[in-house]
Amino acid sequence: LADAVLIETINHATHQIVRYCSIFIFLFGSIGNILNVFVLSQLPFRLNPCAVLFLFSSAVNFIAILSGLLSRMLSGWGADLTATNRFFCKLRGFLVNITRVVAIWYILFATIDRWLLSSRRLQRRQMSSLKNAQRAMIITLILSTLIFSHVIYCQEPNLVNTPQKCYGKTQACQFLTDISFTTLTILPLLLILIFGLMTIRNIRESRARISHIITQLGGNIRATNANQQRRLAKQDHYLLIMLLIQILILF
């Protein structure tokens, strides 16, 4: 009897945590992504590949929150349509898997873009372009859609003995979805860490070179050019800080 009471208490506590924590995460996650979209869609950032990647990453993250957390939040109040409706169940599973993976890969591309721009080699810096960023985003979206297309067939509502009522209907479906999602999230996280560290190293080397050049020139630099360089460097500095924060959050 004591064990039954304990289990019931744990289940009740878990239910309450899911109910209220999901609301908190939903509100703050939505507000944060909406603010990112608003700021990064401003004119000064529209031609910056890193800013564009962050913009679409925030937009995709917002879709992930709507498709994933909204149903989880409603489940705490017994109003989750994905648990009983076949169409919404399949749509949620499809969107959640794609958007979460795509958002991480977009952040990876932003990390690579910062690394390219911080490189000493001209060829690498020239690879940082809006066209390449757009190509990477489109290819990632297409590949993710193809990889998780099986979710449309696999996902079914009203299941029992599964973590959620809306889940993969067979063990093969569950394994394929889990292994695809795990691989496509762990791999970019590792690459983000690697390219982030290489970017920091390039920045340190660049600062050392700039200090040496300024010392040799003796300060004979035009004020207008200096102000322009300072403004661009400041913008890149903010984007780099934003990127590092994203990396810390992901890890």
TrEMBL record:
<feature type="domain" description="G-protein coupled receptors family 1 profile">
    <location>
        <begin position="32"/>
        <end position="251"/>
    </location>
</feature>
<protein>
    <recommendedName>
        <fullName>G-protein coupled receptors family 1 profile domain-containing protein</fullName>
    </recommendedName>
</protein>
<feature type="transmembrane region" description="Helical">
    <location>
        <begin position="136"/>
        <end position="153"/>
    </location>
</feature>
<keyword id="KW-0812">Transmembrane</keyword>
<dbReference type="GO" id="GO:0016020">
    <property type="term" value="C:membrane"/>
</dbReference>
<feature type="transmembrane region" description="Helical">
    <location>
        <begin position="94"/>
        <end position="116"/>
    </location>
</feature>
<keyword id="KW-0472">Membrane</keyword>
<feature type="transmembrane region" description="Helical">
    <location>
        <begin position="179"/>
        <end position="200"/>
    </location>
</feature>
<dbReference type="InterPro" id="IPR017452">
    <property type="entry name" value="GPCR_Rhodpsn_7TM"/>
</dbReference>
<feature type="transmembrane region" description="Helical">
    <location>
        <begin position="52"/>
        <end position="74"/>
    </location>
</feature>
<dbReference type="InterPro" id="IPR052954">
    <property type="entry name" value="GPCR-Ligand_Int"/>
</dbReference>
<keyword id="KW-1133">Transmembrane helix</keyword>
<feature type="transmembrane region" description="Helical">
    <location>
        <begin position="17"/>
        <end position="40"/>
    </location>
</feature>
